[in-house]
Structure formats: structure tokens, C-alpha cells
Amino acid sequence: ESDTASEISFQFNKHKKTPSVGSHSSDMASVSSVSGSVLSVYSGDFGSVDAQGTVEFALDYDEKNREFQVHVFQCKDLAVVDEKKGRSDPYVKTYLLPDKARMGKRKTSVKKRTVNPIYNEVLRYKIEKMVLLIQKLNLSVWHNDPLGRNSFLGEIEVDLASWDWSNRKLNWYPLKPRSLSAVNGVDHRGVMNLSIKYVPPGSLGK
Where are the domains of the chain? Predict the structure, then answer.
């Protein structure tokens, strides 16, 4: 999987003091609008790492600027990809679905050698509220491998139509595995048109 530097998010309140983990609710949020998705769109390697851990984030919509904001604060107890060194280099990636291009992709910075990364970053989308409400947010966590293919660490999917927009607090959500049926449909790399014609034996050259 390839990610460009232009897709890296803005740093959230970089001039402000980073809030402590204890200042947020430690209860695991459980809402009907959050679920595991069928696949993690446009992803790279499915990998052999079992999804585990949690992610803490909050959603908001800035009416004035017509901007959807995904505040990714941190992850906890992620799977270890490099078992020999006991490490992972995780980052968080988001998509708005349905999306047939990579225009909707955003991602955080990569945190090295940790399974408990703290990001405190906001991923931003310029989008009308009415359009946003007919979409879903796919949020996935990946291990960054600059020499190979990135490994999937877990994901969740949020139904934005049923999301409680009055809730702007950071909450914890469990990361879920991908369905094995998604492997055949991981990459979206364009469209191919073809036609099939049956030619009976002996008809060639006629």
C-alpha cells in the first residue's frame, strides 16, 4: 500500500498542552453506529496479525467551515507485528464510504516502535453535512513497513447517519478484524471492460 505525504493530517492544537490519558473516559463506548466493516478499503497486505486493541477518537462537524473532523487521539494494546523486536510502527487511516477514488483518504503520522501510540491529530474533510450523513467512516490501524507491504492491525466502521453529533468527547472503541471474504476485493485500481465471444472449431479463417 502506498500513502503520500500530502494525505497526512494537520496536527491537533499543536500549540496547546497535550491532554493526559486520564482526562478522558476510560469506558469503552458502545453505540449502534459503530461496527466492524466487511473490508478495509484500498488496503495493502491482509497480513497474518490478529486484530486487537482499542482506538480513542472523537467526531465533530464544523458548521461554519463545513468541515468534518476526526480527532484521533491514541491507540492502546495494538498487535505486535515484529515479534523478534516486539514492536509495531502504527498509523491510523480513514476513508469516507462509498468512495471510488483515493480522494477520501486521510492518515495520521507513523509512530515508531510502540503498540500504544499517541497521535492527538485531526483528520479533516471539506464536505457538506447533507452529503456526509449518507456516508460511512472507515477507520483502520496499520503497521507501516517501508520495505514491504503494510500490515492490517484492526478497524471499525461508523454509520454517520446515526451518529450522535452532540457527542464531541473522546471515547474508546474496540478494533475489529477484517472478514476473510474481503481479501479478493482489497485494492481498487481502476476499471476494465472486456467482451467474450465463442468461436466454434473450424470457423477461423471463414
Answer: 5-11+27-180
Sign of CA dihedral 125, 173, 135, 110: positive
Residue 181 near residue 38, CB atoms below 8 Å: yes
pLDDT of residue 14: 45
- Whole-number Cα distances in Å, 19 to 12, 68, 203: 11, 22, 76
pLDDT tens-digit series, residues 136-175: 999 999 999 988 789 999 999 999 999 999 999 999 999 9
Asked if 40 contacts 94 with a C-beta cutoff of 8 angstroms, the reply is no
The hierarchical CATH code for the domain 5-11+27-180 is 2.60.40.150
**Closest by alpha carbon to 137, among 169, 102, 163?**
163
- Place 47 in a pLDDT band, splitting at 50, 70 and 90: low
Q: How far apart are CA 96 and CA 177, in angstroms?
A: 19
Beta-bridge partner residues of 10 = 122
State the Cα–Cα distance between residues 122 and 9, nearest whole angstrom: 6
Do 71 and 170 contact (CB within 8 A), yes or no?
Answer: yes
Model pTM score: 0.70
Give the DSSP H or E segment for 132. helix 129-132
Work out whether the CA dihedral 118, 119, 122, 125 comes out positive or negative: negative
